[in-house]
UniProtKB/TrEMBL annotation:
Molecular-function GO term, any one: carboxylic ester hydrolase activity
Annotated protein name in UniProt: 1-acylglycerol-3-phosphate O-acyltransferase ABHD5
Record organism: Acanthisitta chloris (rifleman)
Lineage: Eukaryota, Metazoa, Chordata, Craniata, Vertebrata
Cited PANTHER family: 1-ACYLGLYCEROL-3-PHOSPHATE O-ACYLTRANSFERASE ABHD5 (PTHR42886:SF34), RE40534P-RELATED (PTHR42886)
GO BP annotations, alphabetical order: lipid homeostasis; negative regulation of triglyceride storage; phosphatidic acid biosynthetic process; positive regulation of triglyceride catabolic process
Length: 182
């Protein structure tokens, strides 16, 4: 009852895993075996195990961070941010692991429940145009909420981290939404 407008940015967990997902894009046996071996562990446990060497590990494995954000930072700020966010107690990581079924599908897809939300609450779904997250969820939400305001915005030139990839465009869109609510 306190929400005036819901902005979903790169929302994961909306679509259901298709019955033919395995047939559409078969998963190699070695990936299945590796997944079975690693399934008890959180994905970033290795970063925590690396301890003080974790930061250099991030810098070596993802040198693209420094290049990608060179217009904003001329040092290792982004790698340090990624490291410090992920070396902490893995509460978000644990939550994500508990909400998924194999290969990244939601255990309880939101599309099954979105129609239960108050129809008077407007929703804007923001995606990066180059994101790996399914951008069709916005139109599916609209079909499940035919009497509600639902808008989908694709930010050109942005991937999954839309707010970092195109910060000016992203901030402008969010500001416009906030201004329309006030």
């Amino acid at each position: 009852n306190r929400v005036k407008h819901l902005i979903l940015v790169e929302p994961w967990g909306f679509p259901e895993r298709p019955d033919n997902a395995e047939h559409e894009r078969p998963i190699p046996i070695w990936i299945k075996a590796l997944g079975a071996i690693l399934s008890p562990f959180n994905p970033l446990a290795g970063l925590r195990i690396a301890g003080p060497f974790g930061l250099s590990l991030v810098q070596r494995l993802r040198p693209d961070f420094k290049r990608k954000y060179s217009s904003m930072f001329d040092d290792n700020t982004v790698a340090e941010y990624i490291y410090h966010c992920n070396v902490q107690s893995p509460s978000g990581e644990t939550a994500f692991k508990n909400m998924t079924i194999p290969y990244g599908w939601a255990k309880r897809p939101m599309l099954q429940r979105i129609s239960q939300m108050d129809q008077d609450i407007p929703i804007t779904v923001v995606y990066g145009a180059r994101s790996c997250i399914d951008g069709n969820s916005g139109s599916t939400i609209q079909s499940l909420r035919p009497n509600s305001y639902v808008k989908t915005i694709a930010i050109l030139g942005a991937g999954h981290y839309v707010y970092a990839d195109q910060p000016e465009d992203f901030n402008e869109k969010v500001k416009d939404i906030c201004d329309s609510v006030d």
